[in-house]
Predict the structure.
Amino acid sequence: MIPKLFVFVLAALFCNAFASDAECPQGAVLSPFDPNICYMVSSNALDYYSAADFCEQAEGHLTSVHNAFENSYLRGAASSIGADTVWIGGSNNNAKGIWKWEDSSAFDWTDWGPGQPNGTAGLCLSVSTHDGFWYGEKCAQAKPFFCKVNPTKRGLASCPNGVQ
Ligand SMILES: *[C@@H]1O[C@H](CO)[C@@H](O)[C@H](O)[C@H]1NC(C)=O
């Protein structure tokens, strides 16, 4: 019988090998925690909808954010380009003012700042490098932004349970 620990270590080795195999399109960097996500950081400030177009031309979307790891990574990347706030890919530009991601993924995690969301429809989502929180802002403002794009070469879709 093959010891469980051995199988686990083997799985971990292969998992890491595949993960490090992932490659991003030019100008994008691999997520440190998900081999199926690449981020493109643009320090060029654009209004929200122009930023969204830019990301779509790069075959991605303004980024969705689904957990605290992703949020703090993006906050750090925004800090490193000297931005106060950056656009991420959410808006509530619809009759009911419901917040949605540009990439149509579930709006399943939030990091609203104090007093947010403030009930106004037609706003777009920024993340602040000062507190890491999200703010609904006027979409016409020009801000640096983050796209989420697919790797050109995929890593392992997901590691086995318990393997990082
Ligand atoms: C909500 O925030 C937006 C954008 O900053 C602002 O224009 C609007 O006046 C705010 N609404 C309320 C009710 O505070």
